[in-house]
Prior knowledge:
The structure is a homodimer.
Chain A: E1 2-7, H1 11-22, H2 24-31, E2 35-41, E3 55-56, H3 59-63, E4 68-73, H4 80-90, E5 94-97, H5 100-117, E6 121-122, H6 134-140, E7 146-152, H7 155-167, H8 171-180, H9 189-192, H10 195-209, E8 219-220, H11 228-237, E9 239-250, E10 253-264, E11 276-283, E12 287-294, H12 298-314, E13 339-346, H13 350-357, E14 360-366, E15 369-374, E16 377-378, H14 379-386, E17 392-398
Parallel strand pairs in A: 1-2, 1-4, 2-3, 4-5, 5-6, 8-10, 10-17
Antiparallel strand pairs in A: 7-9, 7-11, 9-10, 11-12, 13-15, 13-16, 13-17, 14-15
Amino acid sequence: MAEIAVLGFGVVGSGTVEVLDKNSAKVAKNAGQNIRVKYILDIRDFSDSPFHSLFVNDFETIVNDPDISVVVEVIGGVGVALEYTQRCLEAGKSVVTSNKELVAAHGYSLLKLAREKGVNYLFEASVGGGIPIMRPLVQCMAANQISEIFGILNGTTNYILTEMEKNGAEFEVALKDAQLKGYAEADPTADVEGHDACRKICILASLAFGKHVYPDLVSTEGIRSVTKDDKFFASELGYKIKLLGRARVVGDKLYAYVASHLIDKEQLLSGVEGVMNGVVVRGNAVGDVILCGAGAGKLPTASAVVADIIDAVKHLYARKWIGWEDGDPALLADPAQLETAWYIRTDAPKAKIEREFGDVIFAGESNGTIAFKTMMLSGKKINDILARGIKPLSIFRILV
Amino acid sequence: MAEIAVLGFGVVGSGTVEVLDKNSAKVAKNAGQNIRVKYILDIRDFSDSPFHSLFVNDFETIVNDPDISVVVEVIGGVGVALEYTQRCLEAGKSVVTSNKELVAAHGYSLLKLAREKGVNYLFEASVGGGIPIMRPLVQCMAANQISEIFGILNGTTNYILTEMEKNGAEFEVALKDAQLKGYAEADPTADVEGHDACRKICILASLAFGKHVYPDLVSTEGIRSVTKDDKFFASELGYKIKLLGRARVVGDKLYAYVASHLIDKEQLLSGVEGVMNGVVVRGNAVGDVILCGAGAGKLPTASAVVADIIDAVKHLYARKWIGWEDGDPALLADPAQLETAWYIRTDAPKAKIEREFGDVIFAGESNGTIAFKTMMLSGKKINDILARGIKPLSIFRILV
């Protein structure tokens, strides 16, 4: 029997304990032994919980208990979660987490520490909730050179964009609806500004390309600038608008960025709607692999946490090969160097657009604005053209 | 350094050698050591091949070489492939394969033999080409009770159905096109009659539910009965027609079947077009996980084979937990017991259809035939109704 501790009894923590309890037979079979939650660390009162006898409020009880081989960190953030993770790894305990903020900011050093201590630091749940991503990327595509990994990594923004499309709603209206339904937080900044997607693409890029990609170096735009009109025009052109996190190798350079994109309706990823997430991995042997599912939520995220717990229990005396080298500010090239097709909405006259851009495809006009799709142009080039008197009301990349 | 042998230098065998060669640095990094192909077994003449010095034509050379730790069986079929696989496992060598026919027919006994010998029998490439399926199912979803696994498992039939949809072509025309493009074989029986999809759903069902599901017990229909008219009517109703392999637990019974289905265009799986494959796994914690990619082809399949080679090399002295119990004829229940909505095309009069079926949704009429969608009915019940004088020209399940 393996004994574990869960740090934090919020949504993911309680889901983890619930899945371990509900599916205990399946979990035991796959782990080769029973897994017992010995402690739950949370200072709040859970005296009504069926698990109330497991609660402790002193981390020292856990870190000093030699029977605890695996610790689940689902506290979130980079404060106490960082400290506890370090101390557990130092004490020779494997750590499983869904904490994308911590992995994105400190993954390199925590993986290094885990390696030094001969234990595992696993974080499948940190990206894409319950969608299997880490193992497919690290193991199943182990024979591939990865050229690109990208996807719809944030369920809140995808829900908002889907609602805007379906109901012709403006951003603020769809955001309120998402908040009412519990898909968006009262302060939605981390989601709608793209920070959450940024952390996730950093983790995926680090895994795919072998060097830590730090979030503060990644160009990040959210979805606030997407309007009802943009949704309409994009649809006319045959596209949906989705927030994508992307990491690409072009030539010998690595690019990572988060931005709203137009995706062709014929592409499978455009069908990833609502709170679902979808990740595309492009390998030189396998081509495109697309992984989709619930990107968040109590039980889906817990599903990934428990899969990692099982793996940690099975590998108490062997290390899973997950890791990457440290990154540095020079690692990423400027995505404005990359050529792509662009969607632009503006109130500039049609004749001027045609004069400055040459070949474009117009989507139509509405409320005195006009939208069009350009040929392949770099971000630098398009800024030069726009500077000649075409003020963009919206400008988004098209996924090509 | 690990030394391996490849049995069969056809499409997948040559792709495997190519991927090992082209991506050797990445492969070595992930395997923790270099992997060298020492022998290729094929009796044909490959004197022009850059790998010509590796060819042998005597299996004894390979099975008796103690340096060979992993053997790749990409011969296909259940004849010599079965014999060689047994002998390699008995000789203490791990075996990696893309041979779905062999795994579907003899997976239980081969996995049992591998376990007895302390080696691995791995077959990620046998289902869905390069799409990661085995590890996501066995490892990433290890915390879930699986209630259903289903998908588009055959690229040839999906290409034909996609072409019929796009070009309004009849089956025979689309089949010829697929043959010209190399997506269908001269004798397309195994694909268009559903046998290939059947083998794959048997492998997935065995993995997901823990007992060997033998292909000859699985109700299997192909796509020959899908007409241009059906494609048109289905589209009118908001559906695409896809060949699905399905395995489901309903109550305490297991059902497995292969048949053409109508899938709502809003569902992501309906967007899996052409030679792509897509698999949906439904777990009680994670919900639906959808895995898509190239379901066949030289390099995609080789990508999965090489991933298994890497895993076999990393686990020479430890076994991967993959296995299932033996199945028996009583394992599967009759899918005609299951309720679903149905699509029916007939030349019966509309008034009679309404009288016999009650609430239905009509798709319209064409060439003297009429198509409609029923409410939820079991296969047995629908046969009773049809026996009252409604002759179905086509009848398909609707994925609900």
